[in-house]
Specification:
This protein has 290 residues and is α/β, with parallel strands linked by helices. The chain has helices at residues 2-22, 54-62, 87-96, 113-118, 137-147, 207-213, 218-228, 247-252, 258-264, 267-278, 282-289; strands at 39-44, 70-76, 99-103, 123-126, 131-133, 152-154, 157-159, 162-163, 166-167, 174-177, 186-187, 193-195, 233-235, 242-244. The mean pLDDT is 92.
């Protein structure tokens, strides 16, 4: 059933890409026409995806029933500049008001850390560069935010398993849940996560620290920074918010995705231990939240 669901998501994603290419899209409104705090969708991309998948992600964001105020695509300033962004992507972003910004290469952390520094008072929503998002996804997150404005919200999560005050291996956690139950959750940023202003601990932008403790695990770092700040995580009952569009490539190139590398090589467990060792009070703070 798991593989059938993934395959169906991929087929739907391909069909949705075709549909998005013909649906009319409007440019984003000027910021002065929007209410503060702004809703800023922030994402990053790298390598081949900059010229292949990310433009489809942007199309799905422009077609949201509750449109964002800003969309920012972060590219690393080592491999990219205004001179070598693929022309199709550059023209698309210019036409529809999507911002392309360049920043230090801090791997997957580019999706959120630069936006936290640029837009500290805005509502930030992270998405991935290989998924296209259903039309109601952003509206559902925002409506849930109005009801629980202090919480970090997501549409997909894991539920950690604990024994003797220790996390069990990441592979043994309850995976990919879409409805809030009685157990604490661990949000998956790629499926769409909303961060209210001031919801993360100050260390969240400490590049030297997170690149030492968890260089390949931004979701784990952002989870820990929420716990350290005393912020709860909450699941929005939307179901799967996205369709897969890069699945075949990832299956044929097993090490192409960060998730595959972390999961199959147990990197997540190593990085969780690193963070827990550095923040000795983290586990108790997490238990206290729930």
């Amino acid at each position: 059933m798991k593989y059938l669901r993934i395959l169906w998501s991929y087929i739907c994603g391909v069909l949705y890409m075709v549909l998005m290419s013909v649906l009319p899209k409007k440019p984003l409104e000027p910021l002065e026409n929007s209410v503060h705090p702004h809703i800023v969708v922030t994402l990053t991309s790298y390598g081949r995806r900059v010229g292949t998948t990310v433009i489809h992600v942007l199309k799905s964001l422009l077609l949201q029933s509750r449109r964002p105020d800003r969309i920012i695509l972060w590219l690393d300033n080592v491999n990219f500049s205004s001179d070598n962004v693929p022309s199709k992507l550059a023209k698309f972003c210019q036409k529809y008001g999507v911002e392309i910004r360049f920043c230090e290469d801090i791997r997957s952390y580019k999706k959120l850390v630069p936006a936290l520094e640029l837009c500290p008072d805005d509502i930030l929503v992270t998405v991935d560069d290989d998924l296209v998002y259903k039309r109601g996804f952003l509206k559902s997150l925002y409506e849930a935010h109005l009801k629980a404005p202090a919480d970090i919200l997501c549409t997909l999560a894991h539920s950690p398993k604990v024994k003797d005050r220790q996390f069990l291996p990441y592979k043994e956690w309850e995976q990919n849940i879409t409805k809030m139950g009685d157990n604490p959750i661990f949000p998956l940023g790629g499926a769409g996560t909303l961060y209210p202003p001031c919801s993360l601990y100050d260390d969240v932008v400490n590049k030297e620290l997170f690149m030492t403790l968890a260089p390949q695990a931004d979701d784990i770092w952002f989870w820990a920074m929420a716990v350290m700040a005393g912020t709860k995580h909450r699941l929005v009952d939307f179901g799967y918010s996205f369709y897969q569009i890069d699945l075949l490539y990832q299956k044929l190139h097993k090490d192409s995705s960060l998730m595959s590398s972390n999961l199959h090589k147990d990197n997540n467990d190593v990085q969780i231990r690193n963070i827990m060792k550095y923040y000795e009070e983290l586990f108790d703070k997490w238990l206290a939240l729930y």
